[in-house]
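Example 4.3 (complexes with small molecules)
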Amino acid sequence: VSSEAPVTPATLGRARAIAAELAGLNDDEMSPSATFMELGFDSLFLTQLSQAFQRGFGVEVSFRQLVETTPNLESLARWLDPRVPTAQPPAPPPASGPDAAQATFASAAPAHFGTPIRSLPPGEKGAMIAVMERQLEIMAEQLATLSGRAPRALEAAPAQAVSPASAPASAPPTAEPAAAEPEQILRSVLPSGPRQVGLRHASELNRRQSAHLATLIDRTLARTGASRRHTAEHRPHHADPRTAAGFHPLWKDLCYPLVVERSDGAWLWDLDGHGYVDMLNGFGPNLFGHRAPFVVEAIREQLDRGFEIGPQTPLAGEAASLVCELTGQDRASFVCTGSEAVQAALRCARTFTGRDTVVTFAGDYHGNFDEVLFRGTAGRRRRTMPAAPGVPRSAVSNLVVLEYGEEASLEALRELGDSVAAVLVEPVQSRRPELQPREFLHALREICDTHGSLLIFDEVVTGFRSHPGGAQAIFGVRADLATYGKVLGGGMPVGVVAGRADVMDTFDGGPFEYGDDSAPTAGVTFFAGTFVRHPLAMAATLACLQRMKDEGPALQERLAVRTDALCTRLRALFAQHGAPFELPNFTSVMYLRQTEGHDLTRLFAHHLLLEGVYLQEGFPSYLTLAHDDAALDHVVEGFDRALAAMVDGDFFPRGSYQAAPAPRSVPSQPPVPGARLGRDPQGRPAWFVPDPSRSGAFMQVAES
Ligand SMILES: Cc1ncc(COP(=O)(O)O)c(C=O)c1O
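Answer. The structure with pyridoxal-5'-phosphate bound is encoded below.
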């Protein structure tokens, strides 16, 4: 017999309705006794949920209690019962659209929401500090998620088709908003089930782990102490999410970024003067190595000339011409970041088609602006929801998120038909580089053609790094619009939207002549930015483009072969040490993925630091042309020692690691004279020779 007080059905019903509404589930899909973790709610979602409860009940509900003291609807309702004013109106019916839901929550917002910590009674401060610690952990996760790591719930999720019944009716092309909102079309992803609850207390570590952790902290401080002192000194005035990345109460002494004061080629040097082979490479922009002399020279020359904003720089037109020549697109326009490029592409596509709905894919990352910070919701009422607190639900209400590479998603897209302005796709997701769905991309092209939707390739990572023509060239698919950034600027902040002339004309109205009565004819949208076409960025961009043009695709192919070889060596080490890691790659983009949950395993990047290898946990790694054999040997040896240290400290979960299937290796020397390196229909490296029967065509050399 339970001694707990009975729960008032009305309170439970209201709590359930709020949670179901936010999760996109029907009420009956939310078991009152299942913990929020068991329902697959991750920390970002729980933060949003605590806010929704606060707004809905006018009572402060903390993130922490949803994890610890009231971890399911039943216990929450029991806790709420005595705190909720009895005269409150019954729960509102589930809102039918984003605006209705916003209004419901907003009108119920309590006056004391966001009570500052200094107003708490002294006895509550300890608990509050613990909450703050947990919040820092969440921030660290948020940072990783929002910086591109696929939300945990999305990664292992089974695919589901959007059901025909829930698809909006097709609408003819029109300048009006589509009649049926994507609100009806819900996210095709289910939460991934029970979430691993991480380590919380030092007592959960065994003796070997405790001793190893203490040594790791001591050794890290001895090596990178100046970085920590710098971070501590500036934390009060510098609000920088990166300084909280990787926060964990048990090793918060390691929670500070490496502060680097100089670099050269493949190497970085920190404030303590220690060197590291850089495997992060600026989250991707670095293709030629740090301070590549030809890039430095181009920037220096431009510095001497000036960096004026407002009047046109002569460099921009030339750079646009080279972007078009290398990518095969008709016209190009510059912005300052990849996010801006994606935002501009979406605005352009909506202007061109007169439609609002945009389809994108789970696991994609498209930047930092509100509309692309989406998450999937599960159950029968699937829909797209904001991925982060602070993003209004209306911001993602025109976005339909489907599972990437799945046949069911193609079906769903066909059902959406003429309502879709654009399909926005990251052709090879940087956190799933092994997923290279060539046929799927071709099918997207075909469906877009059938329905007059635009296909947008987000090539911010793949563009110029995988091939001068990007993933489009590798997979043989031409996008209507493509976005670029990163590598293109040689380390300077640059973004590009390029595409079909008639679509790109929405930026400037299209061509006109001087001295006659011609005028821009295309409808235009607003597109501007103070720093776009910055002369220093344009100088670096032009230098990189020129170098890529001069060297041709062999430049990227050479690097891809070196990356394949490095990954093969590192995978062999994982197998040898029984490490729960895999390292898929697509050309020179690699992603070090932990295959089994264990908080201590996340400390691998710290072990690598001690070995003079720099990467960031949860982010892709990239190779540059400056990574010579000595640098690669240094990385392999560093991994070997770091893995051995992890085993020694008992930092890996025991047991179930299965070595990933070895990738196909390609001989590094041409198998026949004159053979050229290219990619086979699956996108894998292979050697080719000219086809004697078809001028200009190539055929693959058979493997012996
Ligand atoms: C595929 C993709 N698109 C867009 C962006 C956003 O680019 P930026 O960070 O330059 O705004 C990124 C950033 O990592 C990205 O990986």
